[in-house]
What does this fold into?
Amino acid sequence: MIDLADNLVRQIGLLYRAMMKALETETAPLGIGSGRISYLFMLYIKEGLTQQEMANRLQADKGAVARTLAQLEDQGYVSRRRDPTDKRVTRVYLTPKSKALQGDLEEAVAKVISRLNEDIATEEEDVVKLQLKQMLTTLSAHYTSPRLKRQ
It folds into this structure.
């Protein structure tokens, strides 16, 4: 029988929740929730993505991405504009407000990552990363929907 109180899946889930709580604490003074950070970081790397591209990269529901982008837009962190070459496409861009926040957000995330790894030796961290990537690859190969596999 599977030990539902102490198994790898539960530990990964608890780790994720603890990490999100830590990010929420570190970013609270900045006025942005931890769930929105990944959207901004994605745009820090490459502005002008479409909502669908963002949903694919986040492996998230397009509707959830649309709602989060609407909130970020209402708060003045992003703007959505029609693609000048294809008016059917809307692209997402950072605003000066979100660009000004980048250094502070990077610092907050770096602090959480540092705390996460502070009791793990570098070589152990590399092994953990490799194993987690392999687990993700294996599960994705078996459970990713055909719609996402085509892209």
In short: Strands lie at 49-50, 78-82, 90-94. The longest strand covers residues 78-82.
